[in-house]
Structure formats: structure tokens, C-alpha cells
Amino acid sequence: MRELLPNVFTIADQGAYAYLLGEGDDVIAIDAGFTQTPDEQMFPGLERRQQRISQVLLTHGHADHYEGAQAIQARFDAPVAIHTLDAPLMRFAADGELRRKLSLAYPDLFAPPPPSPKAIDADQLLEDGDTIQAGNCRLRVVHTPGHSEGSVCFYEEHQRLLFTGDAVSGGFLHFYCDPEVVERSLERLRRLDVEHLFMAHEYPPLNQHVLTGSAIDEFFASSLNALRTSRTYRLDTLRDIYRHVLDTLRETGREMLPQELVPDLDHTTLIALLKLLERAARRGVGTPAFSG
Q1: Is the Cα dihedral 36, 42, 44, 47 positive or negative?
Q2: How many helical (H) and strand (E) elements, i.e. helices and strands, does the chain have?
Q3: CATH topology (fold) of 2-227
Q4: Residue 288's pLDDT is what?
Q5: Contact by Cβ (8 Å): 195, 159
Q6: CB under 8 Å to 196, separation ≥6 — which residues?
Q7: What's the rounded Cα separation, in Å, for the pair 108 and 102?
Q8: pLDDT tens digits, residue range 81-116?
Q9: Is the omega angle on the peptide bond into residue 179 within 30 degrees of 0, that is, cis?
Q10: Using the 8-state DSSP alphabet, how is residue 40 labeled?
Q11: Which InterPro entries match (predicted)?
């Protein structure tokens, strides 16, 4: 637990960063880390400072951000808040987002995901423009879909602080589920007046999780440039993967897990595959999904 600014702390665990904001009995956790993160990284520092977490704000519903919320709930009875669209993600295992989408879109081909033993129910559902008070800080919810449908950032206008989770990922281009929407989200964030940018991981090309001043503009510019440069290449690559998926399903004629279909790709990339190809089909530049 390291203090970055007055009453702003970072929590590091296995390459993922969460943040604590506030003082006394009114400390807000922005993301909660893994299952073990609160016990090992948060609670000892809070005890030393005689502080309590009053609320958990989640940037999105992926395990390295929400798993620790259970321990925080149990210790402080702190409500957990997440965007409406990402709340279902906390009920399934790591690849549940992909399996849920596939089972809804193609019920004859994909089985729905089982519930996770670590499932968490949200106490509060966030929407764009909501505000949360933490001591002297007033956080505004900024809906930034792309990494997930319900990804949000938290913006503190007075101190010009922006907590982005995984919404801005630099040159790490396989980290979004909707490549067109993420560009609009990046442009929206870029227009905010930000002095300190706090991210959930150390992304290339700068490989830092906290940026200040001109480095923020540089990082947004490099993120957008990398995204735009890769778009054509990635669509062509995913079309090839799509053909492989179709051929495999037709050959087997049975329900299959996503990992069986394309074992080398993570679930976020596979969701991006679906998004890209469905849009391509609507524009007449691809084959409609499962057209027979």
C-alpha cells in the first residue's frame, strides 16, 4: 500500500493495481484485486492508518478487479458498485463472458456457463454520469465501453484524477472486446482535463501504471495510433479464425467450449472476433454468422 498523492494509495498484486481514495472511515476502493489482495495488501495498511473502506467501485467485471470485493464486503460491510452491463460478469468463471454471449447468440452450438463459486452480486448499479462522494473527492462515472461492455472510469474533476482500469491499454491491442467502440471511448477520455492517470496495469509503450502531465497525452495518442494502425490487419486475421471456427463446428456437430475451438486465443480476443465479423456481415464485407 503506497501513497501516491495525499489520501490516494495504490495496491499492487501480481501485476494488477487497485486504488484507495479518501481518509478515516470514508475510504473508497477503486477495484478490489484478486481474492487474496485485500487480506495481503490492503487490510494491513488500513489497520495501521485506522481507516475503513466505505464502498467498492469496480471499473469492470473481470476477475483481477472484482474477486477481492468479497473480502472487503465481509470485513467492512462495504457495498459493491459496478456498471449495469458488467454486473453479470461477476457471476461466472473467467471465461464466462464469452460463453454467456455465445450461448445467447447460438444456443444450439454453445452451452451456457456454470455459475462461479466466487460469484458476487452488486449492491449498486452504476450509469454514466453518476457521482460518488469520498471525503473531499467527488468521483464522476464515465462509461467507456470497449474492454468490456460495462467498463467505466472514475474522474475527479477538482484534482484532475482519472482512474481507468483497463479502458486505456496503450499498445496492448488484444485487450478489448469491441474495437470500434473502444476508439470512441478513448477519444472521450482524451478530452478530459487530467493531471494524474491511474491504470490497472503497466501498459506498453510506457510500461507504467501512473502517468502525469504530458505523458498522459502521449499515451492516449499512442493508444489511438496503435488501434487505428492494427484495425485492417486484425480484421483480416480474425476472418481467418472465424472460418476455422465455422469449419470446426460443422465437422464436430456438437457443443464446444471456446478453448476447444481456438485454444491459443483468450476470451477477450474471441469476443472481439464476434463483434468484428458481425459488423462486417452487416456491411456486406463478410459472411453472415452461421448462415449455413
Answers
A1: negative
A2: 9, 13
A3: Metallo-beta-lactamase; Chain A (3.60.15)
A4: 41
A5: yes
A6: 4, 5, 159, 160, 161, 162, 210, 211, 212
A7: 10
A8: 999 999 988 887 656 666 666 677 667 666 776 766
A9: no
A10: I
A11: Metallo-B-lactamas, NDM-1-like, RibonucZ/Hydroxyglut_hydro
Q: What is the 8-class DSSP label of residue 41?
A: I
Nearest to 154 by CA among 78, 60, 223, 90: 60
Phi, psi at 31, each rounded to 5°: 70, 160
Nearest to 259 by CA among 110, 79, 156: 110
Alpha-carbon distance of 79 to 57, in angstroms, equals: 9
Coil, helix or strand for 196? strand
Domain residue limits, the chain: 2-227, 232-282
Is 78:53 a contact under the CB 8 Å cutoff?
Answer: yes
Question: What pTM value is reported for the model?
Answer: 0.79
- Whether the CB-CB separation of 190 and 85 falls below 8 Å is answered with no
Burial annotation 174-188 (CB, 10 A radius, 16+ → b, else e): ebbbbbebbbebbee
| pLDDT tens per residue across span 171-195 | 776 566 677 788 999 999 999 999 9
Q: How confident is the model over 185-237, as pLDDT tens digits? A: 999 999 999 999 999 999 888 899 999 999 999 999 988 888 887 765 566 66
Q: How far is CA 204 from the centre of its chain?
A: 17
Q: Grid coordinates standing for 119? A: 460469484
